[in-house]
Amino acid sequence: MPSASFTSSRSYVRRSRRKGGNRIALPSRTSDPCEPPGQNIPAPPNVGSGATSSGGPSTVAATGTSASSTSPATNSIATNSAIPGTSSSSSSPAGASAATTSASTTASIATASTSSGHQSPYDLRRKSPSASHEVSGCSWNGQTPSSSHHYQSTSIDGGCYMLPARKRPRRTYSTSIDTCTPSAAQYLQYEMPDEVLLTIFSYLLEQDLCRLSLVCKRFNTIANDTELWKRLYQSVYEYDLPLFNPEPCKFLFVKPEDSEYGNPWKESFHQLYRGIHVRPGYQERKYKGRNIAYFNTVQAALDYSDERTTATGAATAAGLATISVSSAGLPALANAGAPAGLPSNAVLAAADEACVAEHPGSLIFLHAGHYRGEFLVIDSDVALIGAAPGNVAESIVLERESESTVMFVEGAKHAYVGHMTLKFSPDVTSTVPHHKHYCLEVGENSSPTIDHCIIRSTSVVGAAVCVSGVGANPVIRHCDISDCENVGLYVTDYAQGTYEHNEISRNALAGIWVKNFASPIMRENHIHHGRDVGIFTFDNGMGYFERNDIHNNRIAGFEVKAGANPTVVKCEIHHGQTGGIYVHENGLGQFIENRIHSNNFAGVWITSNSNPTIRKNEIYNGHQGGVYIFGEGRGLIEHNNIYGNALAGIQIRTTSDPIVRHNKIHHGQHGGIYVHEKGQGLIEENEVYANTLAGVWITTGSTPVLRRNRIHSGKQVGVYFYDNGHGKLEDNDIFNHLYSGVQIRTGSNPVIRGNKIWGGQNGGVLVYNGGLGLLEQNEIFDNAMAGVWIKTDSNPTLKRNKIYDGRDGGICIFNGGKGILEENDIFRNTQAGVLISTQSHPILRRNRIFDGLAAGVEITNNATATLEFNQIFNNKFGGLCLASGVQPIVRGNKIFNNQDEVEKAVSGGQCLYKISSYTSFPMHDFYRCQTCNTTDRNAICVNCIKTCHAGHDVEFIRHDRFFCDCGAGTLTNQCQLQGEPTQDTDTLYDSAAPMESHTLMVN
Q: CA 585, CA 581: separation in Å to the nearest integer?
């Protein structure tokens, strides 16, 4: 007789129909093929279908046949499965024997009431014939019910039935079945209070509850009570929440209120009922209404599972299609190898054949306990899961002192181990070496699932978890691999696998090792506080690492070495006690969209011919630099946001040659990009801004190429070449720096071509202290001081530049500066287009110097120059202005159409201050008044000498650059030509000197 299927309550059945379409309850061989007879819980009828048969459901239970009919009310189909008989019993749970006997009597009475040829109990819910009909064949306590009652009983086929209880008064019924057989059934089904039935049912086990649920609708409702099934479920599985097994290798705890099932406790019971239990002390216990296999050891359960699997294969080969059961509805009991009360292997084989598609492999529950010394080698699709209240994994411990605690080998394709603690604790004082150094080992061609396990190893060699070999492809998720004395997780030798939501922490060596072409997928793991590196990929290790949180490891968060090539995406790598990412010895790798921050050293280190890709990361708040490339490192550094680091955002040194492009490097506490010690690199299309020191530093023989970058808004220099810094600076926008846009000094000789350099608060380009360089085709404009400064023995070459709209002079050369200025356009500057001073000697050829707001070219203070074929025109104060004693070399120049405002002012009798104020320095005769006791720093123009100091003892000093202090109102006497005096500081003889960078360089 096939066993009844196990379904949930009425509400769930209806919801299932809505969700699953035309779902029909069928006999157990088709509706629940994976429930072996005698171990499955029979299902109640499809409540609400109104199905009836000639014998009723109880008749079906007695005869072992099933029946179905279409309800005229709902037009749905319900099939009532046969009810298994009563299981053998020897003992019951404490305090339950009397109740169980009572419940058995109840079930027997219910069965007897329908086995004598009467109609189904479902007919009792129908209204009786007219109240005027005579009642025959049955009386209640020897009396025929009066017609004054709401409804009268009716005799149908010799049976005596009453109408629904709500329509009639209570009566006292005879307990003699012989006198009126249907009376007991009538009373149980309609008159006994629900509370009493519920109390009786609470003493029954799962199979009896399911049998009773087939009796009538009322029994079905009570037998599906949520609290009944919760108590049953927790007594068997001990879990605090329902556990569901929706698919192989997947077990989920779900809060009852979040479950889609009407009775989640019962549904969970149903899904897990096929399981075998390892529960020490329970092996000899047997229960009426329950058929569960109990074992004292894990190995015994595994052996029994293997026997069952073997028997299943034999049954399949023999073509078994049905299972022979006894007249009581139970299969034959176990043969000699199994515990008493268990079904035989032959019986289980046929059932397993049917359920292999839905639930491949055996299910074994390990209840609370410490299981020591069991050597578990798993080569089949068995599922081992801990069963305990509270924190399940902490209550079940598997521990070994040699070999591996759990080993998966070929054949374990869909094996599962979950919710338990695995320990490997070798005796460190033992002289006997163990050849395995792993707590959990996954070998070739095995793909188990390890879920919610705590994994610990005290071995100082090997690893807590080792996954190795071709075809090793486990799923390890929600596990805690911590406090191990060596490596936490080791993936090697072409192994793969998916590793998700694991906690890997406080291990003595790396949290994770990946090597030798292994390629795992690791997502959303928490890897932290390791006493070594967080993740170490080396010796051609690969892998895909996504959304992992890696932090507070003693060395780098992620290390790549020796040809390893991982892909690291959207991870957070932070608070490393050394650095964030360390790529060395020909390492590769793609690091994409990660957050790398707050590391004690550099966020990313690249060295020794390594060539990773660092793309779209945020690299910030490092206690040193952002990206540090040294020792011939390379790499592609692009689209990153690098900011707030204590040292340079990117540092390139010792012949390293990366590609750095499309990055934002900003708000560093130091500089932006620092290239030194013969560093190289292509640095293009980056935005470097708002750094505390220089935007880009290039020094000590370095030769990078900077193209199309935006370098701006720094608190010092934009690009700083010093101590033989070289390289190319091409097509960049360099603007709005507190110091100069570009500084070149001490032997540096860069090529600066096609740039726009503007908005510098200390000028555009400053070349000093022996600086060199070729400045070609640049636009240098709108700087607060000179567009180009050349000083202190510097000797750059300026060709075809446009230097204009400066708020000071165009080019200022002084203090022994030199330089070759060829074919430049110098125009619309506030001061002189070219000022040459203090023993400087540049060469000016074929330049156009025009539209200046002061003089075109001024040479002063013992300087000289070579001026050849220049055009100097339309300048306000004059074309070429030479101070006393200056004798330049002049050849082929065109000086024309200058406005000569100084001469005009002198001729008109005006004070020169009227045309210059104190911001310009027109070149004219320089006087002082001995009568007024003025000094050499007080200049008086010729018209003020004639008018304001008429009759005074005056002295001609020289022809030079100055503004009139008399007109400025800084002398004792009021100027008679200028009008109201204007307060001003002492006369400035020369343009304000530029600020030089003396930043302390930090390696």
A: 14
Name the token pair of 765: 């380009």
Residue 145's SS3 state is coil
Percent of the chain exceeding pLDDT 90 equals 59
Q: What is the pLDDT of residue 916?
A: 84
In this structure, how many other beta carbons lie within 10 angstroms of the beta carbon of residue 624?
A: 18
C-beta of residue 686 within 8 angstroms of C-beta of residue 708: no
**C-alpha span between 990 and 962 (Å, rounded):** 8
Q: Are 420 and 391 in contact (CB under 8 A)?
A: no
Contacts of 579 (CB under 8 A, 6+ apart): 555, 556, 557, 599, 600, 601, 602, 603, 604, 605
DSSP-based helix, strand, coil % in the chain, nearest 5: 15, 30, 55
Which H, E and C letters describe 734-784, residue by residue? EECCCCCCEEEECCCCCEEECCEEECCECECEEEECCCCCEEECCEEECCC
What is the distance between the alpha carbons of residues 829 and 854, in angstroms, rounded to a whole number?
Answer: 8
- Cα separation of 12 and 136, whole Å? 41
Cα torsion 818, 822, 824, 830: sign: positive
Segment 396-420, tens digit of pLDDT: 999 998 889 999 999 999 999 999 9
Quote the crossing angle between the two packed helices 226-237 and 264-272, to the nearest 10°: 40
Euclidean distance between CA atoms 558 and 83, whole angstroms: 61
Could you write out the three-class secondary structure of 304-328?
A: HHHHHHHHHHHHHHHCCCCCCECCC
**φ and ψ at residue 903, rounded to 5 degrees:** -60, -40
pLDDT of residue 8: 37
Q: Residue 54 in contact with residue 60, Cβ under 8 Å?
A: no
pLDDT at residue 434 in the model: 57
CA distances from 684 to 673, 705, 760 (A): 12, 8, 22
Please enumerate in sequence order all residues whose Cβ is within 8 A of that of 247, keeping only pairs 6 or more positions apart, or say none.
none
- Rounded to whole angstroms, the Cα distance separating 752 from 775 reads 5
Q: Which residues of the chain have pLDDT under 70?
A: 1-182, 312-360, 429-435, 978-993, 995, 997-1003
Are 991 and 940 in contact by the 8 Å Cβ rule? The answer is: no
Please tell me the predicted confidence (pLDDT) of residue 82.
32
Taking alpha carbons only, the member of 297, 348, 294 closest to residue 91 is 294
Q: Using only C-alpha atoms, what is the Rg of the chain?
A: 48
Closest CA to 88 of 40, 28, 38, 35: 38
Render pLDDT for 714-729 as a digit per residue (tens, 0 to 9).
999 999 999 999 999 9
Instruction: Check: CB of residue 589 under 8 Å from CB of residue 612.
Output: yes
Report the candidate in 742, 790, 740, 785 with the shortest Cα–Cα distance to residue 770: 790
CB 862 within 8 A of CB 884: no
Q: Can you read off the two tokens belonging to residue 127?
A: 């209204």
Give the relative orientation of helices 56-63 and 97-114 as an angle to the nearest 10 degrees.
100
Q: Which two tokens stand for residue 52?
A: 């009836």
Q: What secondary structure letter does DSSP report for 980?
A: S
Select from 366, 362, 384 the least CA-distant residue to 39.
Answer: 362
Token digits of residue 80: 């009532």
The residue among 289, 379, 307, 398 whose CA lies nearest residue 347 is 307
Cα of first residue to Cα of last residue in the chain, in angstroms, is 85
